[in-house]
Every structure is written in C-alpha cells, then in structure tokens.
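Why does residue order matter? Because the sequence determines the fold. Keep that principle in mind as you read this record.
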Amino acid sequence: MKITRNTPNQLILSDTPWFIGIMLVFFILAFVGAGLFLASEGGEGILFGLFFALFGGGMGVGAFCAFVRRVQVILDRSQDRIMIRRQSVFGYDTVEHVLSNLSHAETESTISRSDKGTSTLYRPVLILDEGMSAGRHPIVEAYSSGRGAHRLVDAVNDWLPARKVDSASQSA
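Structure:
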C-alpha cells in the first residue's frame, strides 16, 4: 500500500496490485496461446491443446480472481468518517466507520513457518475504541513482510494528532 494523499483534512491509503495482475495476465495469455497453438497443429494435439489452454488459462483466471484486489482507505476529517473500499473481479465493497472513534493504528503480526525457518509477517490495523464499530479493523486481509505495514501505521498515527489539535482549537 502507498499513501496517495496526505492533507490536514484527508489521508488516503491505496493498494492497486498492478504487478501481480499483469503477471497473471501474461500467465493466462501464455497458457491459452500455447494451447491454441497445439490445437492448431491438428491430429491428436487438438484435445491436448484445448485441455492445456482451458486448464492453464483457468488456473490463471482463478488466481487473478483470488489475488487481485484493490484496496483504498480514506480517512476524511471533514465528514468524520473512515471508508475502507475493496474492489475485486466479483464486486465492490465499502465499509464505513466514524473517524472520531479511531484511537490509533497498530501493526499486527504473525509467525510464518517454512522449511527455511520462521519469519514474522505484518499487517496494519485500525483500532476503534468507541461506537458500534469498536474493535480491530485490518486495513488489508493479508500479512506481508517488510516495512510497508509499519510505514502505513506511522502515517495514520502521525495524521491523527492533527485531528485532536484541530478539534481542541474549534471548541475554544
């Protein structure tokens, strides 16, 4: 995820998985192209080529549907709301929360075990301490390695104190 807007009234975090989407499109095209080429050769290759195109292309389409999701988080001070928008091949979903109920953001972690050892994976989480939405709300569903989650949490937490200063100056 990256920070696409950081103004006093709005913080927008966005993730559009271009790389994985483009790679999966190339995967689909390679399998379908190779399968159609085999099928065009004629003879016994027709059935194998069609199977290759349908199975390989189908696997690519399935992976595209499962892994390519656009996520956008909008913290909007002027409307006192948080909008978490998720878009995939299957549709569009928006979840809204009240911004004034947001306490802070933090990094959630989990341990990943493999043959090569263990590693720690992270994801950013919004903590709402009041209201009907009180609880932990992950910005993204998947955990990842690296500093990305920490960077997003720092951006949200740095942006939030301005809200408290602004609301204190408005009440005076």
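The radius of gyration is 22 Å.
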